[in-house]
Amino acid sequence: MKYRSVFDIIGPVMVGPSSSHTAGAVRIGQLARRLFGRQPQHALIRFYGSFARTYRGHATDVAVVAGLLDLDTDDPRIPDALSLAAQQGMEVAFSPEQAVPTHPNTVGMVLTAGDTSFQVVGVSLGGGLVQITEVDGFSLRLSGESPALLIFHRDAYGAVASVTQLLAGQRVNINHMEVSRSDRGKLALMVIETDERVEPDLLRLIGRQQHITKVVTLNT
Amino acid sequence: MFRNLEELVNQAREAGQPLSALMIDHEAETSGQTREAVVAQMARRWQVMVQAARRGVAGVEARSGMTGGDAKRLWDYVKKGRTLTGSSFLTAISFALGTNEVNAAMGVICATPTAGSSGVLPGVLLMVQQRLQLADEAVVQALFTAAAVGYAVANNAVISGAQGGCQAEVGTASAMAAAAAVELAGGSPQQCADGAAMALKNLLGLACDPLAGLVEVPCIKRNAGGAAIALAAADMALAGIRSQVPVDEVIAAMYQIGQALPLSLKETAQGGLAATPTGCKWKELLWNS
Questions:
Q1: What does the CA dihedral B115, B257, B248, B243 come to, rounded to 10 degrees?
Q2: Which positions in chain A touch B266 (Cβ < 8 Å)?
Q3: What is the ipTM for the molecules in this complex?
Q4: Cβ A10–B116 below 8 Å, yes or no?
């Protein structure tokens, strides 16, 4: 089931004009910023498919920037996001792309702050529901509806078990999980969506496990 | 748990309950919240809908300069008392237009199921509430029946114009509104399903072809059309008229038509009304300024 709640249908409460091209775009921007863990100083935003053709009309550009500023989909400041970003020293650039994406409403972002940068791709499914489909070159399917852990690790046996054992020990239930890797034996990404929030102590413990290189959290 | 509306209607019939009651149970179960908490959340969304509709008929303008003020124009006309269809019907149309004008003006609305189709359901329900003198609690309950229809469409087909055309947005909204209106008027779960089927059937094939890609023209007036069709379908269902094609098959047909629609008619501003001389003029004006 793509849509799990009645409030995906009667909702979101949002600033118009489009649930997929405005509210969905705010949500993708917000998830990207939360995954990045800070407000970017620079954001390159690439639009594909329907987004590339109609982003001005739907204010998709304004919406993604509002999300990067961590505004919610019903925040009345959304229409002023571009000037808010300028005030806060966040530079943004937009690029409509010709490439035909798998999903018609796709946005790719390169976020930079200091010397760290982060790549993320998201799609807007309709009715405000979104999915993060790519992070730093790894494929995934992240709805952002549940708390999630993105754990970058070396592709070696025992890496997944070490994390799931720690979660089980703290009675954290996994509701969705997937693992993908760049090449055999190289870097891999496990995405774990949980029913409960994962506390900072447990996160630090996970980060110290053998093979784990980086832990990114998403709390909803 | 249900996969389609036939299953939900059967469960409702066996339980002797309206569709809304089953949908509230379903939401409480899947979210881990109490029924009361779920209903309270829906009540807050109803308040957002009411506020947006009232703001719309008071008059708003979109930044594009393309739309605004029509809900107020119609509302003023209704208040003069001399209309062809009657004030009750035009109340629904005024609020449907008004809500979507607020959406176009980047105001706060509740997507039902999408922002582009957010006027249909509030328009119909505000009118039914006035006509049948119902308390807010009854309308809030009926929103779950609307949600059940939208949920079935969303999970078995699509609800975005980019994937399915306008039929997936205004078509779905109209089906949702028809089902909710039937339940509020005392119709059976099967009549709710028939109302939804007849509404969606009348909007099959509708392209998503907005001028300059903005959710304004023809979206706002299609919300008026969606509300009108929902009311016609609801009254037909309440009169005992059945949909020859069951609602789940209508939903499947909508999905198939959406797949067959060319990209130019799916929210890309490349075909249909968007490609008319007037559409091209607005695109030129709004995209290159």
A1: 100
A2: 50, 104
A3: 0.95
A4: no
